[in-house]
Amino acid sequence: MATWENLTDFIRSEYEVTKDTDDELRILIEYEDGRSQVIIIAREILDGREDWVQVASVCGLVADVDLKRFLEEIGETSVVCGAVIMGEHLVLRHALPLENLDINEFTDPLTFVADTADHLEELFFGGDGY
């Protein structure tokens, strides 16, 4: 899978897409316990020439969390993804180059980001808002 079009075709066939634009898809991951997590999959152009895909998920509002404890938890429990602040939100994200991307190189990190974001959202924010 080497193009954004190939990836988005795969995503549309395998996941519940809730938003679909030229450079972004949003999917809903639902868990057996009734929780769910929205995942944002966006096309990014690195240095104006390389296609990358970014997988991101919102955990909660920055104002509502102890960032030190949050980052420590990520350090202890996650091997994939980093935490960033985007506007008022605390977001987990991971990026991958599209060139020569194998499907498992996309699906495994997507699952890790979703599961980690859902875990952190429940642990630190006590709800299921994202």
TrEMBL record:
Name of protein: YbjN domain-containing protein
Superkingdom, natural source: Bacteria
Source species of the chain: Saccharopolyspora taberi
Gene3D superfamilies tied to this protein: 3.30.1460.10
